[in-house]
């Protein structure tokens, strides 16, 4: 995983507001075009405490069909562009550190396109409400419904149709043994 980091924000900002007050939809709308213009897909945005400071993490990847990995230099260059936009728009109320990173091998899956891209891969899914009393599913991602309303996961040869609207979190489970042998599917 490649990561570039820098400190942003003004210490004189309103101390009663925290970076956790950020609007993820607003940030996504602000940063997605910057990422796309640089040739990347905005995968995820996270903002929260980390070791006594607030960190805004921006995860990027190449669009589907690209087989190369994000480099440190690319993260650094995009970090400068993102920082410039954030300085002008000022969407976060307090001082924070910005990290621009690849999503890693255990990348999060958020959109129907993400799930389609990784059909056949091992995944870990958590639902908000659950299905038949169960909230956690670990298995192979089989498919995404045509209308994007659900995903199908094979858990020990039992198929579960999980409603997309109930997904709390989803991420890939890397095949470490295949990766160590150089045979793993790129995440």
Short description:
The protein has 187 residues and is of the alpha+beta class. The protein has two domains: 3-101, RimP-like superfamily, N-terminal (GMP Synthetase, Chain A, domain 3, 2-Layer Sandwich); 112-180, SH3 type barrels (Roll).
Structure description:
With about 190 residues, the protein is an alpha+beta fold. It contains 4 helices and 9 strands, in the order E-H-E-E-H-E-H-E-E-E-E-E-H. The strands form 2 sheets. A 5-stranded antiparallel beta sheet has the order 8-7-6-5-9. A 4-stranded mixed beta sheet has the order 1-4-3-2. It has 2 domains: about 5-100, GMP Synthetase, Chain A, domain 3 (2-Layer Sandwich), CATH 3.30.300.70; about 110-180, SH3 type barrels (Roll), CATH 2.30.30.100.
